[in-house]
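[agent] plan:
  1. take the single chain provided in the ticket
  2. run structure prediction with default settings
  3. attach C-alpha cells to the ticket
  4. add a short note for the reviewer (M.T.)
[agent] executing step 1
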Amino acid sequence: MTDEQSSSKHTKRRSRHIRTPDNLRPIRLTRRDLDILNSVGDYRVLSTTQIRKLFFRSIHKTRKRLFKLWQHRLLDRRFQPIRVGESPTETLYVLARQGARITASQNGSLGEASQLTPFERSGSPLFLEHTLARNDFRIALETAIRSRDGRRHLHWRHDKGIAESVNVITESASPRLQRVTLIADGRFQLRLEDRTQNFYLEVDRGTVSLSRWRTRAAAYSALFRQRQILSGDVPFVVLVTAPSEKRAQHICEILRLMRSAGNPIFYFATQGLLDKVPEGVIEASIWKCPKTGADWSQRTESLESLVAGGGAVTPLARASILS
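[agent] step 2 finished; step 3 output follows
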C-alpha cells in the first residue's frame, strides 16, 4: 500500500453536524442554487421534502446539495423536537446571512427585510409546524400553476406586510367599536385564463380559541363590506384549512351565530384532503362553505370554480388587495 493510499484510507469523513472550513472546496453556485436561496428566504423556512418538490426529483440529490449549501454557510439548519414513538423529523432550512447577502446582490437591491433577518432560533415547534403547513399549501398552488403554461398566474404575499386594520362592532350585550388588526397566513391573487380572484389564507391548527376566531371572522366580514364598495363584486374569499372536519364545524358554528354571517366568503377544507391533492389543489372540489341553518354544507367547490364564480376583479380592487 502506498503512502497516498494509506493517507486516503485514514482521511476522516466530514461531519454532517459540525461545519468546519478545513479542506472545504470552493462551491460554484448554479442557477438552481440561487433559486433555492431565494425561495428559502421568501418562504422563511423550508423542509428538505418541500425543497425537493420545488427543485429536485431525487431526495438523495436534494440532501446532498443542501448539505453543501449549509457547509458554505449559505443556509442554516433547524431541527424540530422528536416525540416519543414518532419517526425523526425532517431537517429544516433557513437563509443564513451570507446567503441573504448573495440573494440581495442577485436581485440588485438590499432585499426584503424578512429575508435579511435570520429566522428565529427560538421559534416554538407549533410556530414551525404552522409555517410549514402554510408553505405546503403555497407549494401545492405553485406546482399546479406550472402545469398550465401561461394560463395561470399566482401573486403571493405573507407576513406582516399584509396586515389590515379594521373597525369592528362587537356582537355582545353592550356593543362597542373595536380596532382589529388582521394578519392572514397568506394573501394571494389567482388568475385562471381571463378570470381573477383574491384570497386570504387562514391555516388553523386547532390552537386558536373560538372566541378569537369570532373576532377575526367579524373583522373579515367588515373588510369584505369595505372592499365590496370598491369592486361591486366579490372582493375576496377567505380559505380556512382545519386539522379536522370537527374543528371546521366548530368554526362554522361561530359564523352561523354571527349577525354578519350572510357574507359567504369563508370556505373550509381539512388538511387531510389537501394532502391528497397537492398537484390538483386548484381543480379539486374540496372547499365547503357554511350556510345558515345547515349542519355542514355538502356542496363543495374548487378554487377554479371560486375564481370563475367571483368574476374578474376591478383594477381599483386589485390595487387595493396587492398594495
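[agent] step 4 note for reviewer: The longest helix spans residues 125-146.
[agent] ticket updated
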